[in-house]
Design brief:
The protein is α+β, with helices and mostly antiparallel strands. The chain is built from ten helices and nine strands. Strands 1, 2, 3, 4, 5, 6, 7, 8 and 9 form a nine-stranded mixed sheet that branches.
Length: 257
């Protein structure tokens, strides 16, 4: 349907190499772009859009795409030329603000905007400081992943460090429920408006598990599934079953400390 996001398939080997193994050309760009300030950055090649790094990249012809500012113009061209996706096992993290509707009912819209923007900035830094790949901002919720092709073999440990950094009060008095999980995820391009808009999104039951765990987390709490704890080499023996809405089987998880 026009206006609805539709998952795209195809170019599986290339997408698997980029997100699971790491494409040599892209990894070379990552090493260069990470040392240049500053965020926000292209979601694929990490080219900086702000600061001196952004100025340098603009001089080299790289700037935010006019169609999708999450990607640079070069990577937007890649998504056009090679739409598709692949299944990749990796960590997924959800951060969801608590009581935002009630807070908004008692404050001016400008105050709500400032509060949420402060939360998004803080959370995005905590995620990107651990090499996380920001997937989406849904109002007062952030979704991130750690593809091994971007983040290396320590991706599960990095995801847990980001989750721990997001526990407790967030500047501005924001409290969020946090969850981190690990498992097979289908990452792919999605399109809308008859192909005029193209982005990257994630699909699968592990995504749903993470969202449900985040909804279950108490304000200021971060829940980690047993699968991500095992992947990071941490103790999973104290994980307990959690019944999650819409899922037939309980999920083993524990609160991070």
């Amino acid at each position: 349907m026009t206006g609805d996001l539709e998952r795209e398939d195809g170019n599986g080997p290339l997408w698997h190499q980029i997100f699971c193994e790491g494409h040599p050309a892209l990894l070379k760009q990552h090493r260069l772009h990470r040392i240049l300030p500053s965020p926000p950055r292209c979601r694929l090649c990490l080219v900086p859009f702000a600061g001196i790094g952004g100025w340098v990249m603009r001089r080299r012809g790289k700037a935010p795409s006019s169609r999708n500012p999450h990607f640079c113009n070069a990577c937007d061209g890649f998504l056009d030329s090679f739409p598709g996706g692949a299944e990749v096992t990796m960590p997924v993290l959800f951060v969801d603000v608590r009581q935002s509707t009630d807070w908004a009912a008692h404050h001016a819209p400008a105050e709500v905007s400032a509060r949420i923007n402060g939360f998004l900035d803080h959370a995005a830094r905590a995620i990107t400081d651990q090499d996380g790949f920001l997937m989406a901002f849904y109002g007062d919720c952030i979704v991130a992943v750690w593809p091994p092709g971007f983040c290396g073999p320590q991706n599960a440990s990095k995801a847990l460090m980001a989750a721990r950094a997001l526990r407790g009060p967030i500047p501005g008095g924001v409290a969020a429920g946090v969850a981190v999980n690990h498992g097979p995820v289908y990452i792919s391009t999605v399109r809308a408006a008859k192909g005029l808009f193209r982005d990257v999104s994630i699909f699968g039951v592990e995504v749903n598990k993470t969202a449900r765990l985040a909804a279950l987390a108490a304000p200021g709490q971060a829940l980690a599934s047993a699968t991500v704890l095992v992947a990071a080499g941490e103790d999973a023996d104290t994980a307990t079953p959690h019944d999650l809405r819409g899922l037939p089987d309980p999920v083993l998880a524990r609160a991070l400390v």
